[in-house]
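Exercise 7. Given the encoded structure of a 545-residue chain, write a plausible sequence.
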């Protein structure tokens, strides 16, 4: 399945759980079959509901869904993966290794950036070195920490010892090698993530300007960005991949609420939405008919703990366990979310290698008596009050209120919502470590292996670890899993690491996602990837004449 790559932090709430595909109405696997009698416009433009990206559009500096959707359309990666999780080559002709430590990458012929310059081995090596360097302050720099020499360009303290990583070598224009610090059986999977994009020579002349107008190697080329309004990309006619665009381009339109985008969708003023407002969940499949989409994807909603805050800095994990057991997930998903989500029983989303049901034990089971007892044994919630931060443009208010009601009624701990005006403001508060208590978090896969939901979220210093969680025992378990000789062994060891999280509670698992969305009468063949995002290149636009 092309287009299966990550969207990282999930903006919206209106995605539904993986196991909830029994719902009637729209098609599970996408919507809008091709009509042989219909004429299609190969230059037609698709409009997509979106929002303002958090950061400039530099591949290593984007870790949220709005920016990721654009990056995914503009950049192609070395590899992708299909619906079964099997690696498929994209810009790479091959990626080979004999020891899971040193990899040789050979590129396909004829690929170019959108400025016409060739995509070479140097395009990747230079990009990754720039992305990893401390001075460039890229949000996802830690993704290169597996590569030998990373600590020299990105030390934890002090000045860098080098400008390039010793583990990257250009062999010729189409070949380069990657040497890791230690073996990593799933490293090839990680190469599907957009952080490993190549960059053209022009990028380095003015990286800031390149972030405003990125030049990639993907199926679409960047056209313009009107801040707080829209981002437009157009089909790249010289694209060499096998997933060329079947439309003329995509306009990502900003919306401040899912209610507004859904209203535009129903009146055919907008072509695609990937979230339905909570109030419309009971009826959207009847409203849209065959244009409704209800499809599982690999993502999970959790409540993150701001461990850096005064409230949680020295808290006993029993308190977090108690709060978790005070949440009636079954009732909230059935009522507030219309029965379209599935309560989570662990920290790894369904659909990825290593998912295990019940990994969190009984701490995701609603049990008010045990919840009160655990909180008491742990010394109580400091201040006996919590607040849940969330973004108001993502449709989260209703379930946040329900979770708070459940906690209040079960334990007597006061709980209120802490609304931020939009996803960008929410993320900025998290990055600045300004979350007052706890926060809504949604994570979607970068690659289909359980390590992505564990090490990349809860490892000490990981880019996705926004709550400041740090646990030596968990870090030791992930290190052991990374050093495994085979992928199967690594996945199994990560399953052990997931079960260990019960003892330290980095977050509270809530529920698994499905994408709930739909499309207008103007487009067809709208499919969604394992990351819950539309696969833009397959969308067809109806001819008007």
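Solution.
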């Amino acid at each position: 399945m092309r287009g299966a790559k990550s969207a990282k932090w999930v903006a919206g709430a209106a995605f539904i759980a993986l196991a909830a595909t029994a719902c009637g109405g729209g098609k599970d696997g996408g919507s809008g079959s091709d009509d042989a009698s219909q004429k299609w416009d190969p230059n037609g433009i698709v409009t997509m509901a979106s929002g303002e990206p958090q950061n400039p559009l530099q591949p290593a500096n984007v870790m949220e869904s709005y920016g990721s959707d654009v990056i995914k359309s503009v950049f192609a990666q070395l590899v992708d993966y299909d619906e079964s999780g099997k690696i498929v080559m994209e810009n790479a002709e091959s990626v080979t290794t004999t020891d899971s430590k040193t990899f040789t990458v050979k590129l396909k012929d004829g690929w170019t950036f959108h400025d016409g310059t060739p995509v070479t081995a140097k395009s990747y090596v230079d990009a990754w070195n720039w992305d990893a360097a401390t001075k460039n302050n890229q949000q996802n720099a830690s993704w290169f920490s597996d590569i030998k020499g990373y600590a020299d360009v990105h030390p934890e303290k002090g000045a860098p010892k080098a400008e390039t990583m010793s583990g990257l070598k250009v062999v010729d224009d189409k070949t380069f090698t990657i040497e890791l610090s230690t073996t990593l059986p799933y490293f090839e999977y990680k190469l599907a993530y957009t952080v490993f994009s190549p960059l053209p020579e022009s990028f380095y002349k003015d990286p800031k300007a390149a972030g405003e107008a990125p030049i990639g190697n993907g199926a679409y080329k960047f056209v313009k960005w009107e801040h707080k309004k829209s981002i437009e990309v157009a089909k790249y006619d010289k694209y060499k991949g096998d997933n060329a665009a079947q439309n003329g381009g995509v306009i990502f339109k900003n919306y401040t609420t899912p209610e507004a985008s859904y209203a535009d969708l129903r009146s055919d003023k907008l072509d695609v939405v990937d979230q339905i407002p909570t109030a419309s969940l009971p009826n959207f499949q009847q409203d849209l008919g065959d244009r409704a989409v209800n499809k599982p994807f690999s993502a999970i909603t959790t409540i993150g703990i701001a461990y850096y805050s005064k409230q949680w800095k020295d808290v006993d994990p029993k308190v977090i366990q108690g709060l978790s057991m005070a949440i009636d997930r079954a009732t909230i998903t059935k009522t507030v979310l219309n029965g379209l989500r599935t309560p989570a029983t662990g920290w790894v989303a369904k659909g990825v290698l290593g998912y295990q049901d019940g990994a969190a034990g009984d701490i995701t089971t609603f049990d008010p008596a045990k919840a009160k007892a655990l909180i008491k044994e742990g010394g109580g919630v400091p201040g006996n009050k919590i607040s849940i931060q969330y973004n108001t443009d993502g449709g989260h208010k209703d379930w946040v209120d329900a979770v708070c009601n459940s906690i209040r009624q079960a334990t007597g701990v006061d709980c209120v919502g802490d609304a931020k005006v939009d996803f960008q403001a929410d993320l900025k508060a998290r990055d600045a470590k300004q979350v007052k208590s706890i926060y809504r978090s949604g994570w979607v896969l970068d690659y289909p292996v359980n390590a992505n939901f564990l090490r990349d979220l809860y490892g000490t210093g990981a880019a996705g670890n926004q709550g400041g969680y740090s646990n030596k025992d968990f870090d030791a378990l992930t290190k052991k899993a990374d050093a495994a000789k085979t992928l199967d062994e690594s996945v199994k060891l990560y399953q052990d690491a997931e079960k260990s999280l019960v003892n330290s509670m980095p977050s509270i698992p809530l529920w698994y996602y499905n994408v709930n969305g739909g499309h207008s009468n103007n487009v067809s063949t709208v499919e969604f990837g394992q990351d819950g995002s539309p696969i833009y290149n397959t969308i067809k636009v109806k001819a008007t004449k």
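Remark. The chain is about 25% helix and 20% strand. Students should compare their own answers with the one above.
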